[in-house]
Amino acid sequence: MKLHFSWFTPTNGDGERIGLKKPEREPNLNYIVEVARASERAGFDGILIPVGTPFLDSWMVGSAVVHHTSTIRPLIAIRPGFIAPSLSAKMAATLDRFSGGRIDINIVTGGSPSELGQDGDFLPHDKRYERTEDFMEVLWKLWEEEKTDYEGPYFSLKDAQLVPRNIQSKIPAYFGGSSDAGKEAAARYGDVYLQWGEDAREVAEQIEDVRSRAGKYGRTLEFGIRIHVIVRDTEKEAWEAADKLVSDIDPSVELRMSEYYREADSVAQQRMNRLLQGDYRFGKHKWAGIGRVRKGAGTAVVGNPEQVREGLQEYIDIGVTHFILSGFPHLEEAERVGQLLLPQFRNQRVGNVSLA
Fold first, then answer.
1. What is the mean pLDDT of the chain?
2. CATH of 4-229+316-355, one of 3.40.50.1820, 3.40.630.30, 3.20.20.30, 3.10.560.10
3. How far is the C-alpha of 268 from the C-alpha of 80, rounded, in Å?
């Protein structure tokens, strides 16, 4: 067992405050590379590159990261069905070779009909997950077989072969999804089941559910959490930073996000939305204020280094070994987290297993 810590690439802008009409820092190539390099220096194992309408193209950003770093693993988010799986397999294999075998993929089926519709995707929720499973079946066949024929509900192949081949025999896949369809797809094809930072008891329930589903297929998964961190030398400074982060939210941005939340058919997003009440605090040192204006991962662990470690330890105690962290702005916070938080987990032991 090993703990894995990854950072995040802010490909839709960055800054000390969120919820503005225009980000304080635009997501240009130089800034993205700077964040990736800072993350590598800070000691992160990987860096997530998001996918979606508001973001830069994840494959192109992944290529930039690969060519400007040497050890960090880009976790490239992709949407099944937007590009044919055979072409996606070739793109992944090419970048796997360029990187020396250090890429992962994050399968994002999508949870907003309006956003997906902007790209011409109008499949209903459960059908999207059926397509995801068909997509992954094609990837697996291309990775495992020299030549393959395949006839599925969404994709077909005839005498297909993957050239070039991956360096990694099978590129690790991170999967999210809290619906039955999402958890079933993760159980069948995922390597890491990824959740957003909810209350640890609810996370534990989903872990047990997915673990049981995976067992039906003779598979074993690892488990991850995607969450923000606001860590400072003192608790007071950390909460001051949290307050500053949401101190200048534009009302039109918050209204637009509220409308997005109402139409989204993502069960995981609906679970996140339930945390948007009261003072947004829950669990050990956790806060949902970021979710006011950020879809997806909208929670953070807030406090001094020991408190943030305690907040993450809640997840480790229930079986989580992968963390994808982020903080605003991502450049300075990568360095800060590398100094104040990551050392808290070095040489940690769980039972007789070292989580170095």
1. 94
2. 3.20.20.30
3. 18
Evaluate whether 279 touches 50 at the Cβ level (below 8 Å).
no
pTM: 0.95
- Give the integer Cα–Cα distance in Å for 65 and 56: 13
Q: What is the pLDDT of residues 98-140, one digit of tens each?
A: 999 999 999 999 888 888 888 888 899 999 999 999 999 999 9
**Where do the structural domains in the chain lie, given as residue ranges?**
4-229+316-355
